[in-house]
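Something for you to look into today, if you have time. Just paste the record in under my message, thanks.
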Amino acid sequence: MGENVSLLRTVDQSPVIRLLFSLLFTVITGTIFFWVLIYCGSLIFDTPISVMTATSIPGEIEKKLWIVRYVQVSQQIGLFLIPSIFLAALFRINDKSFLMLDRPLSLYSTTLIIILIIIIIPVISWTGAVNSELSLPAWLSGVEDMIREKEAKASGILAILMRSGGIGTMTLNLLILAIIPSFAEELLFRGIFQQLFIRFFRSNHAGVWITAVLFSAAHFQFYGFLPRMILGLLFGYLFLWTANIWSAIIPHFLNNAIPVVLTFISERKEVTGQVNGEGSVFPFIQIVLSALILYYIWFFRRVKPRLPDKK
């Protein structure tokens, strides 16, 4: 018993061990819980595990929809939410205090963040268009073809979720694609890893940037890496400056929710074309306005940062 207490104390106090332990713990625990949930899903839907995780699921469309929804939720809960809750508890720190969930975001700050994310969406769309044009070297053409095929299948799964439906379907999509991911991912990446990287490198900027890269890489989408990394930087700096995890969760939710709502509206109005636009025009005005809002938040709304732990 004494050895266990000593180990927890070491993990809790050393930034190096805490970071390495957290990375390893997240991978192992997340993988275990994800597959446990998938196994449970195979029993619920009377479907083999191999079919549950396949990109092409045979059978009736309604059953296929519920399987895809279940897998999406299982990924978020198993890979992101459960590890973050366990890590906060293992560090023997009050969960709300460590994850900075203990105080609500002010209405004024929330309004600023909502305006910011609406303005910055064209910037994200433009960077996504630029990212999609990137190509790997010729000697990696086989890898590139595999990546494009995998991402096309992922887009197909998303299209299944976003298929036509009523207000009930849209509400369910908001839960699966916006509410759960924004909460689960921000708790792990900003609430846990950004703070750990800041303490490890004793640098706020290093913590934000490395977490943003990790956040984008964890989605395994090469042609969406750049826009997702920029979003990670946005969420990271908002969290850093406000010391409030809700300042990351809210814009993350809005970024995921807006396409869901616009898709629903476009289908009701029979609007054709891409909901998010082509993103081919350089969004100069949006960049300037976004920079001004971020500067305002940094200058007037930021709180005094917590001192990193000593090594």
Q: What stands out?
A: The longest helix spans residues 167-201.
